[in-house]
């Protein structure tokens, strides 16, 4: 078979990428920094002005040797964009400092004056005392906002000015210290995530006020005595490793996910429409011996989750409850609506499960499915289990061990 050298040459010389429509090329270029996007103008006349109509602008100060060069580049891009009204998102990753905050102010002013829908800011502050421009915290058109600080200390920037985003639906904050009443002006907010955060030291109670909030995630927070969530439409609440003593949450929650140590206390009498709950302790059992107070807090929380239909508990919860089986004999099972109970075990975990634990969890829902979730194993569906000693013990040794089904 002979090669058609002319055909091979035509295939090599053909620029298929340049033949793609602008929208697709813009989508590909949106994954890269604007410095790279501008450099593509050297490829051919087809690429010369493509960067001037990009709807997604990504700026990173790490791509430049000096702040002055970075500022000149950003100014050039913003002033030479042919269709600023089509810019839908701006992403900024920069080293903090007074000079760079002036640049950030310019970017925010550009974004808000052109009705940009999404703004993501990742900053590396050189100090914990930086005051961010107020214009960054107020926009009539912004719908999605991420503000994240990266630093070696747990708490970075203090936000004392209430956020004023009436059109905002999604907000993600990370590495900040919160003032009181930060979200009440975000009247359209539906999805809120706060990570690596704390509150001002003089606040005994922290209110999260958001009338239309549906999803709330609190991750790695500290310094809370009581959190009061005033969000009547809240459906999904996730709390991971937050030092919260008490939580007041709307009773109409549909989903609750909580992991931490020690467990927080729920101030409400209970949730009347809870469909799904996932509760876990961190794996401290090998370092800290569980106390009877830990078991009491677990029981108190579970009693308030009485309406749940799908309940998942991690192995540490079972370990703690099984350490005080006599304590459970004083309580009736609160779960009359339970459809499925899942116990999530760890690799190499020795599990003790007493009859009192089984009764407390399943006695009022005898037809509920009982699933032991084994890592990298096929999950096994179990019926109620108890032996003559009232103790179920399972040892998981290796991932390739053959798991068993009990009935």
TrEMBL record:
It comes from the Eukaryota. SMART domains: FBOX. Residues 20-60 form the F-box domain. It holds the Pfam family F-box. InterPro entries: F-box-like_dom_sf, F-box_AtFBL13-like, F-box_dom, F-box_SCFL_complex_component, LRR_FXL15/At3g58940/PEG3-like. This is F-box domain-containing protein. It comes from Lactuca saligna (Willowleaf lettuce).
